[in-house]
UniProtKB/TrEMBL annotation:
<dbReference type="Pfam" id="PF03703">
    <property type="entry name" value="bPH_2"/>
</dbReference>
<dbReference type="InterPro" id="IPR005182">
    <property type="entry name" value="YdbS-like_PH"/>
</dbReference>
<feature type="domain" description="YdbS-like PH">
    <location>
        <begin position="81"/>
        <end position="152"/>
    </location>
</feature>
<protein>
    <submittedName>
        <fullName>PH domain-containing protein</fullName>
    </submittedName>
</protein>
<keyword id="KW-0472">Membrane</keyword>
<feature type="transmembrane region" description="Helical">
    <location>
        <begin position="34"/>
        <end position="51"/>
    </location>
</feature>
<keyword id="KW-1133">Transmembrane helix</keyword>
<feature type="transmembrane region" description="Helical">
    <location>
        <begin position="57"/>
        <end position="78"/>
    </location>
</feature>
<keyword id="KW-0812">Transmembrane</keyword>
Length: 170
């Protein structure tokens, strides 16, 4: 299993694994967006405070907006998980309702890494991925998204090597 502990994935994702499938990488959700939200809120509140009484209204709305954004982030981070196996990329999101996706490694077409300014500073980002004929799926707030991308590409390379070896034998 390449040193990946099965205790680190949910029962739901564990049940989705096939008998011949092993987890090679578990992507972790970064906690650093909360720090970015805090820095942005403090900076904007300072700027709004310079506007006088009118600025305090903006400040109140800013604090409320960032509070809602932090709550949404926390819900997303505790309810989402993404794993790379030797056959596919599997993910689940959602606390009350559940959204799942899986992209077989041999069918994955492209990976797009996105990082905001704070994402680049603090080392987190998102990956959008698509499979053949499927819609694009996004994995948000990933810790070191380029390492996750490398793990997916390495796993895909292994699958393609095995597939090509089998075809060469026949």
């Amino acid at each position: 299993m390449n040193g990946v502990s099965m205790a680190n994935i949910s029962t739901f994702l564990n049940q989705q694994l096939r008998t011949d499938e092993s987890v090679s990488f578990i992507a972790s959700i970064s906690k650093k967006p909360l720090l970015a939200y805090l820095i942005l809120t403090v900076a904007l509140c300072f700027l709004f405070s310079l506007m006088g009484n009118f600025g305090y209204i903006f400040m109140a709305f800013m604090v409320l907006a960032m509070l809602f954004q932090c709550i949404a982030y926390i819900v997303y981070s505790i309810s989402s998980e993404f794993v790379v196996t030797n056959q596919r990329v599997i993910g689940k999101t959602g606390l009350i309702s559940r959204n799942t996706f899986e992209i077989p490694l041999e069918q994955g077409e492209g990976l797009l890494v996105r990082q905001s300014l704070f994402g680049r500073i603090f080392g987190y980002g998102s990956i959008a991925s698509s499979g053949t004929g499927t819609t694009t799926v996004a994995m948000l707030y990933l810790e070191d998204p380029f390492a996750v991308r490398k793990q997916i590409l390495d796993a895909k390379s292994l699958v393609l090597d095995i597939t090509n070896s089998k075809e060469a034998v026949q």
